[in-house]
Amino acid sequence: MKKDEPPLDFPDTLEGFEYAFNEKGQLRHIKTGEPFVFNYREDLHRWNQKRYEALGEIITKYVYELLEKDCNLKKISIPEGYGVIVLNPNENYIEVEKPKIHVPSSSDSSDEPAEKRERKDKVSKETKKRRDFYEKYRNPQREKEMMQLYIRENGSPEEHAVYVWDHFIAQSAAENVFFVAHSYGGLAFVELMIQREADVKSKVTAVALTDSVHNVWHQEAGKTIREWMRENCCNWVSSSEPLDTSVESMLPDCPRVSAGTDRHELTSWKSFPSIFKFFTEASEAKTSSLKPALTRRSHRIKHEEL
């Protein structure tokens, strides 16, 4: 801590931070009405970062409460008691019980064939290599000294995606699954496809990526995965071009279109109207055994309609 840095003693409520959500769901300062300001104190990046994280924890709990109360979603715990919203328990889905996780004993790994252990080690090293390569894209404001808390079977975004797929999505009765994956989430989805290709293809109808940082070359996605992504995915990227304008890509995977904003953090929100249109078309196309028409400039939604 710097000599002139204030203590890292932050409030535990939104009101304590003097913030609240207005009727439009926007976070605003109670007194000034201004949006959240990251650089609350000049030249104190570490303190600002910790303040940002503390407020983020409060907002996370608030969003969980809204998802459970207003959206009737169900909160289920993953190992070590960390909650994750996974299902809408209505007539379209089955109830999912908390899975009984088998905790390998020390003898389990020794009983494995050497070839299998070697293959698992290789996969683990490759996953770590890719994760480290993209770490700088995940959160530019993250500090390196932050403590990393390992959650069993969910030690990385890639592991978490596979875990949620295996324990919740794959077990649900839903026949049409749609993904919205933002930023590093796109990389996690591609990793999920690599590990569960056949299952994903059979259950997922369409995938909307928003400013995804995936890379099919670095992640070594096979030809069949790239072909499936071209047909069933679309990436809304940060761009100053109008919403849904085609954006050139150097990667042989899904089409890229403008999200209608050059701000990375707003790409999901700005492109939601087009994403839901894309999902509707994909669902209708699946029903009629036709391929969905990807968002085109002619389908662009006017700014006044948003």
UniProtKB/TrEMBL annotation:
Region (Disordered): 98-137
Annotated GO MF terms: siRNA binding
Name assigned to this protein: Cotranscriptional regulator FAM172A isoform X9
Basic and acidic residues bias spans: 113-126
UniProt-listed GO biological process terms: regulatory ncRNA-mediated heterochromatin formation
Domain Arb2 per the UniProt entry, residue ranges: 80-243
Residue intervals passing through the bilayer: none
Assigned GO CC terms: nucleus
